Amino acid sequence: MNYNQNPSTQLLAQMFWVIQKQDWYQPDVYLYKDLIIALSKSKKMDEAMKLWENMKQSPDPPDELPFRILLKGLLPHPLLRNKVKQDFEEIFPDQSIYDPPEEIFGLR
């Protein structure tokens, strides 16, 4: 399912908050990543930031790959991307992040 094409992105996020409270729920960084990108593309940045903060507090240690995928998906959203980038640098201090030239993604 392509969440950013779906007009029900907000409904998906609301369902996620309900499911997350269930006893059987296990955090999934890839689900977080998909929802954050979908919310960002839907211009629901407050909800995307709330979800990002929730993901950071997950009991499982974050993996590097979802961060990198999220950073790429957030190129059109510099404020949220910068926050994610700062968190990545704190969690993975020995890793570097490639920032592509803005003109490649039509941001100029």
TrEMBL record:
PPR repeat ranges are: 28-62
The record's keywords, sorted A to Z, are: Repeat
| Matches recorded under InterPro entries | PPR_rpt (IPR002885), THA8L-like (IPR044795), TPR-like_helical_dom_sf (IPR011990)
Spell out the Gene3D superfamilies in the cross-references: Tetratricopeptide repeat domain
PANTHER family registered for this protein in UniProt: PROTEIN THYLAKOID ASSEMBLY 8-LIKE, CHLOROPLASTIC
**The protein, known as:** Pentatricopeptide repeat-containing protein
